[in-house]
Amino acid sequence: MRLFDLVAVPPLWGFVLWKACGLRTAPRQARIMWTMWLLWAVAFTIGIPAVRRLIDAAVGKESFTNLPVHMLSLCAMCAFFEFIRDTTGDSDRGRARLRWVALGLAEAGLAAAFWATPLPDGEADLLTATRSPMITLYWMIFLGYVLLTVASAIRLCWRYGRHASPGPTRTSMQLLGLASCFGLVYVVHRLAYLAVAVVGWSEAGASGVAGTTQVLLACTLLLLVASVCWPSLADRVQRFRLHRQVRAVRPLWRLLTGVTPDVVLPLPAGLRKDIELVRYRCVIEIRDSALALSRHVWSQQRTTVRGLLVDAGLAGDELQATAEAALLLFAARAERAGLPSRSAEHALVRESCDLDAEAAWLAKVAAAVRTPAADTAAGLLLRGTGSGTPTAPRTPDRCP
């Protein structure tokens, strides 16, 4: 078994069988994609030397397997173009119908040219084994249709990909375009061999031609798989990142909403699986709760907390996050203790127009809430408030 067969065939069948489970309820785009992979899987399986010999022996004709392999490949290329057309939203139905007509003519031309030419031994590559004019016509028909498909795919990917917003969709479109470019290189490579064969080039380079073809096909398939899987993979990575953010801010959310339950709005069970909405609700409810608790905090206490934390050796973002954590911890304890409000509502946590950045910052504040520095500062504020005397920051010792 060739290395190409080992690399390409098992993953193709694995992908086909995996996607077959939900095919009945899948959208049209997914069904077209599945059909494309099924056609490639069958074509490559038939092309395995051991399988090819069995089929040739059963039919009783050398090299017969080349015909169904190439006919299935043309159908797969047509499905590939339909997938890209559906993905990009191209509405030119006239050209789409012409492409189906071209597929029918190409399939008929392949069959006619194949049966009209003397065929080589089944172990030989059909392209390099004969100089028959009919086999040259056979390859011109096959490569002409592939060239038409990949050129059209490159055009659509370029037209729609550059207008797509940055993200998984644009990346997927770029990978599709790159796969089409490798398909174009495959066509050029095969056409170049046909051209030099016409002028009498020897068959010494036949093995190199077959090897290069396999490398180009493998690269094309890998890029196609990457382009198809990229949006799903990016979505999984995004969901994992959102789950981590929610888990990180959840302790802070519990601390604040535990003393201000009115800020929590009921979330229907069906929406709890939408992790992006859950994160949004967590951030908004933390912000609303902090605003409600801010009435326990006045400006002198902010100064006191910063002084205590600077004395403890904190600086930069760590200082800012721990200061916010200490004030929130103090405000939550004051609310739970039933202490009276002492100021108007004001922002206790850093807010941002970028929800992602704000969630990341709140995760730092949530982590700081559990630190001894924040707990100590909050305890000092609470004792000072309970005695009616605000705690002042300690003046650092000066060197003589």
Describe the model:
This protein is mainly α and 400 residues long. The chain is built from 13 helices and no strands.
Instruction: Report the portion of residues in β strands.
Output: under 5%
The CA-CA distance between the termini, in Å, is 84 Å
**Helix/strand/pairing class, anyone?**
mainly alpha
Q: What is the helical fraction, as a range of percent? A: over 70%
Globular, elongated, flat, extended or rod-shaped: what is the shape? rod-shaped
Overall pLDDT: 83
| Helix and strand sequence | HHHHHHHHHHHHH
Spans of at least 5 consecutive residues whose pLDDT stays below 50 are 387-400
Query: Care to count the β-strands?
Result: 0
Largest sheet: none
- Rg on CA atoms, Å: 34 Å
Discrete helix count: 13
Question: What labels describe this entry?
Answer:
mainly alpha, rod-shaped, 13 helices, 400 residues, disordered C terminus
Task: Produce the secondary structure layout.
Layout: H1 3-20, H2 28-46, H3 49-59, H4 66-88, H5 93-115, H6 133-161, H7 168-198, H8 206-257, H9 275-293, H10 299-311, H11 316-337, H12 355-369, H13 372-386
Helix pairs in contact: 1-2, 2-4, 4-5, 4-6, 5-6, 6-7, 7-8, 8-9, 8-12, 10-11, 10-13, 11-12, 11-13
